[in-house]
Design goal:
single chain; 318 residues; alpha+beta; 2,3-Dihydroxybiphenyl 1,2-Dioxygenase, domain 1; 2 domains; eight-stranded mixed sheet; 5 helices; 17% helix
Length: 318
């Protein structure tokens, strides 16, 4: 670069600032090597430096900006890098002592489609879910939550979350996967809800009367019952909301969007997401003190008119 008196003067000023604050780039022998690292200068210097493509232009400040942090506070006052490894809520498994009646309700009333059967489990999907299933029913003696599943953004993202979990009390280990997806890592939150993390999945491929006419739809509109469109979120009950929030934030990278904090400071509810929705799941404090319970699963509809179920059960309000 050709000699520029203005630029040379600015650099001289910056060197003086660095020397005055003991940051002149001195080597092991205490002698300056002539280098000035602009990013190592304190944020409260009396000169704000604007770095352009060819020049460094100083601007005099009458006082330091109020937003500046002291160097010793940089690590404590700045947020850590967000974890964006989870893509979305994949599916939920519900345990039911009455499998046939549960299927009749979700297929005939809610308008879901059966997409697979394996052992005591039946797999269902809404008409706009891109994966093969979003709901799994498994026959059991008592109703409850089997597990909830989160799909990772990539195999590498899944491995990062596994590395973060391995060796701690919440990790349960790898499974061979399920009928509709590949290998999964199983973990358990502090309240006892089982969580499945996976990446490899089956995209739904309709056939026969379910084949769609439009390429941007996954399957033909069912025109049955409430016509639920896609899995939206699920809601659980927990004893220790704070412990669960910290688990999902620190190990899975989910973001807190809303919470309930009592006047006593106790956290009583939370909503968390890994997408652009308000929440992929929510926890509320369990008044009974019971751990690991399920409250509800929610599916999105095209319109509120779809909720009118009275026509499907003549003479019944619910």
């Amino acid at each position: 670069m050709p000699f520029d008196p203005e630029l040379d003067g600015v650099i001289k000023v910056l060197k003086e600032f660095a020397v005055a604050r003991g940051e002149s780039g001195a080597g092991a022998g205490g002698e300056s090597d002539g280098a000035v690292n602009l990013f190592e200068l304190p944020l409260t210097v009396d000169t704000l430096v604007i770095v352009g493509r060819e020049k460094v232009i100083p601007m005099a400040l009458s006082r330091p900006p109020k937003c500046c942090l002291k160097r010793e506070d940089w690590g404590t006052r700045m947020q850590s890098e967000p974890i964006l490894d989870m893509a979305h809520l994949g599916h939920v498994e519900i345990l039911t002592p009455n499998l046939d009646e549960s299927l009749r309700f979700f297929i005939d009333v809610l308008g879901m489609t059966q997409s697979g059967v394996e052992g005591d489990s039946v797999y269902l999907r809404a008409w706009d879910d891109y994966e093969r299933h979003s709901l799994k029913f498994t026959a059991a003696k008592q109703p409850g939550l089997g597990h909830m599943a989160l799909r990772a953004r990539s195999p590498q993202a899944l491995q990062r979350r596994v590395d973060a979990l391995v060796g701690i009390e919440f990790a349960l280990g790898w499974t061979d996967g399920d009928l509709c997806h590949g290998p999964a890592f199983l973990c358990r939150d502090p309240d006892g809800h089982d969580i499945e993390l996976y990446y490899e999945t089956q995209w739904y491929e309709p056939s026969g009367p379910l084949r769609q006419a439009l390429k941007n739809q996954v399957q033909r509109f069912p025109a049955r019952g409430c016509n639920v469109r896609r899995l939206d979120h699920w809601n659980g009950l927990a004893v220790d909301i704070k412990a669960n929030r910290e688990f999902f934030e620190n190990y899975l990278g989910l973001r807190l969007t809303e919470q309930i904090v009592l006047d006593s400071g106790i956290e009583a509810g939370m909503r968390m997401t890994c997408t652009n929705k308000t929440h992929d799941f929510a926890y509320a404090m369990d008044a009974t003190g019971t751990k690991g319970r399920l409250h509800h699963v929610t599916y999105a509809l095209n319109s509120r008119e779809e909720v009118s179920c009275r026509r499907y059960f003549p003479g019944k309000r619910n």
